[in-house]
Amino acid sequence: MSLSRQHCLEGAGLATFLLNPQIPFTSAQLPYILGDIAQQPRLLGIPRRVEISRTTTLDPQPSQSPETIAPTAENLSGGLNDQNLKQPEEAGRDWTRSFHGLSNEAFSPEAAKALLAPINPDDIEIKPDGIIYLPEIKYRRILNAAFGPGGWGLAPRGETIVTSKAVTREYALVALGRLVSVARGEQDYFSPDGIPTAVEGCKSTALRRCCKDLGVASELWDPRYIRKFMAQNAKEVFVEHQLTKKKKKIYLRKDEKVSYPYRETKYGA
Q1: DSSP string of the chain?
Q2: pLDDT grade, residue 74 (50/70/90)?
Q3: Of 79-88, 98-107, 208-217, 255-264, which range is least confident?
Q4: Strand partners, 247
């Protein structure tokens, strides 16, 4: 017994097929069963038992256009599908490969003043291990002051590389239509669900490194400045982790207090 075209068009064909596996069908009848491809002119040689693929857009696969990439993945353990797409000639300059404008001329005195302005010590943060840094948002504000919002941007120079513990990607800093610097960022993560956050951290790291070539916050790489800043603004504190009870020495700004999960303790106590 086989399904007739009229039976398929009446809407009962698919249900009959599913409830009666012994009923054969032909590839010519399948388009009518599925309905949404009823106008398909060619025959479809699809197997009898069709399973919906669980493959997601984050699994390793060939490059795709943006329209075909949908956020339907259940996890990110397969990595990211963010290869740079080849731009058509009319789309403008391809910043994945171009070095256009690099060192052509200096930026305006007004932009240079904003980029090279001394750092406000109140903006500098101290990591527990004593490393000083400027929060990423401060770099963005400096670039906005120098070039204006929309006058600069970060262009990916390659796809994101995802390892078992970290993500890394190369970015180019472009300002006023000119390439300024290229740097690679990286960020650790602890579970596949943390990959999107790590990708954002990777971008921020690349931004800070690119800004070094513009002289932004150059004091943070000056050993003499670091020693002077730490002597004037930092303090050493012995703390105890309230959960693990482990003790260690950390660094804080003098205007900050020890916060959870640590509590201040005395050395040897």
Answers
A1: ----HHHHHTT-HHHHHHH-TTS---TTTHHHHHSTTTT--S-----SS-------TTSS-----GGG--S--S--TT----PPPPPPGGG---TTT--TTTTSSPPPHHHHHHHSPPPPGGG-EE-TTS-EE--HHHHHHHHHHHH-TTSEEEEE-SPPEE-SSEEEEEEEEEETTEEEEEEEEEEE-SSGGGHHHHHHHHHHHHHHHHHHTTTTTGGGG-HHHHHHHHHHHEEEEEEEETTT--EEEEEEETT----TTEEE--TT-
A2: very low
A3: 79-88
A4: 240
What pLDDT is stored for residue 10 in this prediction?
45
Q: Return all residues near 177 (Cβ < 8 A) that are at least 6 apart.
A: 93, 100, 101
Q: Is 67 exposed, middle or buried (0-12, 13-18, 19+ CB in 10 A)?
A: exposed
Mean pLDDT, residues 26-51 taken together: 47
Find out whether 194 and 162 touch, Cβ atoms under 8 Å: no
What separation in angstroms does the CA of 43 have from each of 4, 11, 50?
A: 16, 20, 16
pLDDT band at 142 (very low <50, low <70, confident <90, very high): very high
Structure tokens at 52: 């919906």
Q: How far apart are CA 109 and CA 114, in angstroms?
A: 9
